[in-house]
Electron transfer flavoprotein subunit alpha
Amino acid sequence: MSGLLIDAEACVGCGRCVRACASGGIVVTGERPNRCAHVTDSCILCGSCVDACPVGALSIERDKTQTDIDLSSYRDIWVFAQTNSTGAVLPVAFELLGRARELAAQRECRVVAVLGEASDVDDAAANALVAHGADEVLRCQDDRLEANDPSVFAHWICALAREYRPEVILYGATDFGRELAPGIAVRLQTGLTADCTVLEIDEKTGLLHQTRPAFGGNLMATIMCPAHRPQMATVRPGIFCAPEADANRTGKVTDVELDAAVASHVRVVEHIPADSQASIAEAKRLLVLGRGIGSKKNLPVMRRLAELLGAEIGCTRPLVEAGWLEYRHQVGQTGVSVAPELLISLGVSGAIQHLAGISGAQTVVAVNEDADAPIFNAAQYAVVGDCVEVAQRLIAQLEAR
C-alpha cells in the first residue's frame, strides 16, 4: 500500500513539512518532546514534505509499478473506433488513424483499430478503418455494446489489452471517450493524458510525448508515461487531419469475443434527436471572428462574407462571453477543435488555447492590426490591417464576380 511514512523517533516536529505542503496533507501536533508530524486525508504524495524535512524523517512508499515487467513486450498502436447510432465510424477515429500511422512508422509497429458494434452488422465500419490506415481491426459484434455502456466497453478493451499488450491506445475526446478512457486507465493501472493537441515519439526513449494545454491554456505541458503500459491519450476531434480513404488498402479483421459474464447496466428508454445544426468541426471553410471585429454591429458584414465564401462562422471565447454568438461557434481548447481546408481569422489575437483548437487547419489566413499577434505564427497568409475593412473589400470583390 502506498503512502507517506513518518519516522516518529526521527521527527523533531519543526513544522517545515507543513509549510512545504500546498494541499494540507500533513500537520504537526503535540508538545515537545513528543511533538510529531501526522498525515491527513488531503495528502497527494507529491513529496514536497519529504524534500523539506531536515532530518529525513519522512519518506514515501509507493505501490509496486510495472517496472518489473518487460515493457518491450508491448507493441503496436491502437485506436479506439467509436461509432454513431447508425453504426458509422466517427471522423475522429480516422483522424487518429492518420496520426497513428505516422507514429507507428517511427516505432516500426502496426496500427490496430478496436471496433465494438452490434451483432449481425455488415463490414462497412471495419472496411472503412482499414481504408483509413488500420493494419488490423479487432472487432467485437455483440448487442451488449450497442448501448455504449462505458463499463462494458472498458471490460472488453481491458481484456484485449492484457492479451495483446498494445504500447499505445488513443481515444477520441468525445463525451463517450472521455468517460471510457479513465475507466480503462484505472483498471490497467496506467496513465492517461486528456485533450492532447500534439502526439510525438521521442527518438531516444521511444516514449510517447503527449502535449496538452495546462494552467488554463497559459502553457503547454508535455506528459510521458515511462513505467506503465499502455500509454494512453485522448485527442479532441479536429486536431489531426484524417487521411484520404484508400479502397485498395488491405488489412486483417479479427473477430474477438466479449466475456459472457459482463452485463450492461444501461437500458435505453428513448432516443432524443440532437440539435440538427451541423457542427463547425465538420466545416471545410471557416471564418473565425475575434474581438478585433470591434462591435456586434459588424456581425452582418462577417455573415455576408461567410455566405459568399461558403464558410461557417466560428469565434473566440470573448465573443461568446459577450453574448455576440452562441457557444457552438466557439473555436479553441475550451470550445470546438477544427480542421477545415481553409480558415480565415479576422481580429483574433491567437491565445495558446485558441491556437491549439485550430492546429488541424490546412490553410490559415489571418488578419489583425497587431503585426506581432501570435495568430500570425500559425498562418500561411498574414494581413496586417483593420479586419472589418479587409472583410468589406473581400465582399466587394466576391460580389463583383
In short: The radius of gyration is 26 Å. The first helix runs from residue 16 to 20. The mean pLDDT is 88.
